[in-house]
Amino acid sequence: MAAQRRLWTRRQLLVRAAVSGAAVSGVSALGGCSTRTPSSATGSTPTKLRIASPDNPVTWPIPGDNPPIEDGLAPERGATLRLYNYADYLAPAVMKAFEELYDVDISLSTFNNADEALAKVRSATIPFDVYFPSYDQIGKLVSAGLLQPLNHSYIPHISDAWPVFTDPWYDGEWRYTVPYAIYTTGIGWRADLVDVDVGGYENPYDVFWDDRYAGDLAVIDDFHTAMGMVLLRNGITDLNTADPDQLEIVRADLLDLTEQTRPKVTITMYNDLPGGQYGLTQMWSGDAVNAQYYLGGGARKEDLRFWFPEDGKGMVDNDLMVVLNSARNPVLAHLFLDYVLEAKNSIANFSWTGYQPPQRSIDPERLVGQGYVPPNLRSAVVREEYFTSGYRLLELPPEVDTAWHQVWQEFKAGA
Question: N or C, fewer C-beta in 10 Å, the chain?
Fold first, then answer.
C-alpha cells in the first residue's frame, strides 16, 4: 500500500507541475542576512585545472579571495533561492517543505544537458544559488572560480551519506561538493514492444544497431554517456580515451548507428519509453525506476525492463550539489544542501525522482521489498560495490574534450 500511495501522490504532483510550470514559489522570508558579497560573473581567482580520477584524487585549493561564508549566519531575508537542475530531478514536495521551514521562495530553472548548463553558469546571467552538476564538471567549475567553498558547519547531515563522500577523489575533503544521486547507465525497454530479452544478447549494446528496431529507439543526449556506450560495445573500458584511433571507432559506429536505426537523441526517456514513443533506449537507472510513474497508452509497469551488467562493469556515476559563486543567498544555499542530505528528505526525494541517494539508511537489498523499485527493475538498484567495479566518466582535458565534441556534433547533425 505504501508504494501505491507514493505512486498516486506522484501522479497528482505531475498534474500540478503541468499546470504551474517550472517555478515553485512559497511565501516571505525569515531571519538575518549574509555578509558575503556575490562575486562577479568571472568568479574568484582562477585555479589551475587538474583532472581528477580514482587513481589521481584532487583536493582543490580555497583561494584567499573566495573563502567559505562565516559560521553562525542567519538565513537571508526576503529571499528567493534559485536552483538550477535537470527537469523532474527534484521532488516538488521537498522544495515546498523547505520553503515552509524557512519562509522563503524557491525558483527552479532547468537544463537539458551539461553543455547547456555550463554555458549558463559561466555566463552568470542568472544568479543561481545551487547547481546540480556531475562530478566531471567540478574541475572546470573550481578552476574558473565559479564555486563557493562550503562551510561544513551548516551541513551536519553529510553524516547521513556514505562515508566516501566526505573525501571523494574528485573533491578531497568535500570542500566544494555534497552528493545528490547515484546511478548506472544501461538499457531500458518495454517487453510488450521489444520481442527480445536485451540482456540475452551476447553483447547487449548491439541492440542499438539492430535494424529491427529502426526508428523505435533512443540514446541519451549526453556526449560522454552515449559515446561511452559505443566504447563499451567495442570492448574499450577507458571511457575517457584520448586515443584518436578509438575515437574514430566511436565516430564510425555512431554514423553507422544513424544509418541503421535512426535513434532519437533525448533526455526524456523516463517519460517517452513508458509513453510508447519508442520501445528501447539507453537509460539511466533512476529514469528506469521513474518510468513507472509515466505509463500511458495501455502500458503496464510490469512491461518495463532495465539491463545493467550483473558484475557492475558498466557506467557508474553520481551527481552533486554545489553552491555557486553567483549565489545571492549562500546561507540558505548551504541549508538547502543540508536539508536534501537529511535521510528523511533524501528518501522522500528518491521516492519521487527514482534516483537513489547514497544514503546510509537505505539497504539496496530491500529496495524492491519496500516498494521503491519494481521487481522487474531490480537491476536498476545501485550497489556501493559498483563504485569499485564500474567505469567512471571523468573530466576530459580541454583538447580531448574538443575531440570528443567534434565526433558528437557530427553525429547529432545527422541524427
Answer: N
Decide: 126 and 80 in contact? Cβ < 8 Å. no
Domains of the chain: 2-182+317-366 (3.40.190.10), 183-315+380-414 (3.40.190.10)
pLDDT digits (tens, 9 = 90+) for 214-259: 999 999 999 999 999 999 999 999 999 999 999 999 999 999 999 9
Comparing 329 with 123, the larger pLDDT belongs to 329
Report pTM: 0.84
SS3 sequence of the chain = CHHHHHHHHHHHHHHHHHHHCCCECCCCCCCCCCCCCCCCCCCCCCCCCCCCECCECCCCCCCCCCCCCCCCCCCCCCCEEEEEEECCCCCHHHHHHHHHHHCCEEEEEEECCHHHHHHHHHHCCCCCCEECCEHHHHHHHHHCCCECCCCHHHCHHHHHECHHHHCCCCCHHHCCCEEEEEEEEEEEEECCCCCCCHHHCCCHHHHHHCHHHCCCEEEECCHHHHHHHHHHHCCCCCCCCCCHHHHHHHHHHHHHHHHHHCCEEECCHHHHHHHCCCCEEEEEHHHHHHHHHCCCCCCCHHHEEEECCCCCCCEEEEEEEEEECCCCCHHHHHHHHHHHHCHHHHHHHHHHHCCECCECCCCHHHCCCCCCCCHHHHHHCCCCCHHHHCECCCCCCHHHHHHHHHHHHHHHHHC
CA distance 63 to 44: 8
**Tens-digit pLDDT profile for residues 202-216:** 999 999 999 999 999
Nearest to 289 by CA among 218, 225, 372, 364: 372
- 357's CB contacts (< 8 A; 6+ apart) are 161, 179, 180, 181, 182, 346, 347, 349, 350
Q: How does pLDDT run across 145-163, given as a tens digit for each residue?
A: 999 999 999 999 999 999 9
Residues forming a β-bridge with 303 = none
Please say if the pLDDT value at position 400 is more than 50. Answer: yes
Cβ atoms within 10 Å, residue 380 = 30
